[in-house]
Amino acid sequence: MEIELEYIGKIIVDSAFKVHNTLGPGLLEKVYETCVAHELTKAGLKVQRQLDIPIFYDGIEFNEGFRLDILVEGKVIIEIKAIDAVNPIWEAQIISHLKLMNKKLGFLINFNVPVIKKGIRRFAN
Predict the structure, then answer these.
(1) What residue ranges define each of the domains in the chain, with the CATH number in brackets?
(2) Is the pTM of this model over 0.85?
(3) Which residues contact 58 (CB under 8 A, 6 or more apart)?
(4) Shortest CA distance to 29 belongs to which of 73, 68, 79?
(5) For residue 63, which of 77, 52, 51 has the smallest C-alpha distance?
(6) pLDDT tens-digit series, residues 58-70
(7) How many CA atoms lie less than 13 Å away from 106 in the CB half-sphere?
(8) Which residues contact 33 (CB under 8 A, 6 or more apart)?
(9) Sign for the pseudo-dihedral over CA of 61, 62, 66, 72
(10) DSSP conformational letter for 116
(11) pLDDT tens digits, one per residue of 66-106
């Protein structure tokens, strides 16, 4: 994995720790998404939120409502959750997002955990 992606990944993890340590578990996903995006922006990274993910099939492009929570520096995907247990479908979803957007690194971060370390999953394509 290239050095730049590793650097971005470290800032993402640090930002998740900071937000979780400040707010704790139990809030809505949108709150965590907003705060993580703010921390990443403060760290000097370009952040895009709620991006449509286009689907390309058989020479056509269409949009069927897939959305990405956060894209960092146009390179790293973050999906934010605030749930009791991670469903394997969300893991499959981030893997699909990496493929559809041709990205190499993604994070699934669940803030509804007592210790954020247990809520961060890293995915590489």
Answers:
(1) 3-124 (3.40.1350)
(2) yes
(3) none
(4) 79
(5) 52
(6) 988 887 778 899 9
(7) 26
(8) 49, 69, 70, 80
(9) positive
(10) G
(11) 889 999 999 999 999 999 887 888 888 899 899 988 999 99
